[in-house]
Amino acid sequence: MSNFDLALSVALGIGLAAATGFRLFLPLLVLSGAAYTGHVSLDNSFAWLATPAALIMLGTAAAVEITAFYIPGVDNLLDTLATPGAVAAGTIASAAAMSDLPPMVKWTTAVIAGGGVAGITQGLTAMLRAKSTVFTGGLGNSAVATAELGGASLISLLALAAPLAALALVVLFLWLAFRLVRGLARGTRQGAETHPGGTTPP
Predict the structure, then answer these.
(1) I need a surface site. Which of 5, 15, 88, 152 has the fewest CB within 10 A?
(2) Are 60 and 77 in contact (CB under 8 A)?
């Protein structure tokens, strides 16, 4: 296997891992479907992902998760539980996709890069939802949920079709999300300094 093919395999794994930071089960469902139809070769230990049972299980879980993030209050609760889940799902997705790497390299990359980027992505989206809850009273959370769903779908499909492009998109998203969160935090801090105690000056 050439170095370029190895790079594509790693990019595919990291791209799918990043997508799990938006939604835990949708990227795994996409990977399962691609493996079932023969578009992706999985590591032997993850052959179960290419079975009809896995497709049904992941499809059901993805549908429930997508719906739950549109329910006010439930979405914020899920965010508190999703970070460890995203790290685990990101590690699994990346390890399953990186089938041609030596086991030590594969699992090290899956845990550090896959799980790490999934956790960071989920953490940033949770912060954006928390800010949306504060500034819009939760009314803007459905827009955040839709953006997350779109991001999970786009990155998952792009990772299969063009892994390096998906990786570039992930880097761009992380940069933009970090800048947005930092800007919102700065605005909140400046507002608190201007109106200490939450009072409005005469």
Answers:
(1) 5
(2) no
Overall number of domains in the chain:
1
| Secondary structure percentages of the chain, helix, strand, coil, to 5 | 85, 0, 15
Kindly give, in sequence order, each residue whose CB lies less than 8 Å from that of residue 160, ignoring residues fewer than 6 positions away. Answer: 12, 30, 31, 34, 39, 40
| Angstrom distances, CA of residue 88 to CA of 101, 194, 200 | 19, 42, 46
Show the domain range for 12: 3-193
Q: What does the pLDDT look like over 100-140, one tens digit per residue?
A: 788 888 899 999 999 999 998 898 888 888 888 888 888 88
Q: Where are the alpha helices (DSSP H) in 46-162?
A: 52-68, 74-97, 103-109, 116-136, 141-161
Q: Is residue 81 part of a domain?
A: yes
